[in-house]
Amino acid sequence: MRKLRTFFFCIAAAMATAAPAQEAPRAILVLDGSGSMWGQIDGKAKITIAQEVVGELLDSLPETQALGLTVYGHRRKGDCSDIETLVAPAAGTHDAIIAAVNGIKPKGKTPMTDAVRQAAEALRYTEEKATVILVSDGIETCCQGRPQIGPLGRCKSRPLLRE
5-19, 83-97, 118-132 — which is least confidently predicted? Predict the structure, then answer.
């Protein structure tokens, strides 16, 4: 659990110190709200760990950082289209993001690739600097036309974004 928290805190620290707030790229936090987030690490639910990590991340970022929140797998079981932007990227969104993250009740599948792609496209990553921060416990479960490989049914990889 400590490694997970340290990893995400390092991401937050890198974002906070990479550039002054007025130069920082807009960002979207993509949160895994899939059913596997009820799993536990050292007796603590992964969704609880993720909520704590997001809180630490937000504490490390200035309120002037344009930040949004996209969540997947949180509304419907078995639905690979369950991706929703709960907070649009803007400055001053920390409280809205914390409230949304703390209200997530994990349910469904893990359309991780599509969620990250949608977040990047919403940020117009091909036109301006953008940051997507992924908080997840696992692997893609929505292969959508890509073959599943291996004993865990992982999806054969494909490029996440186009250059």
Answer: 5-19
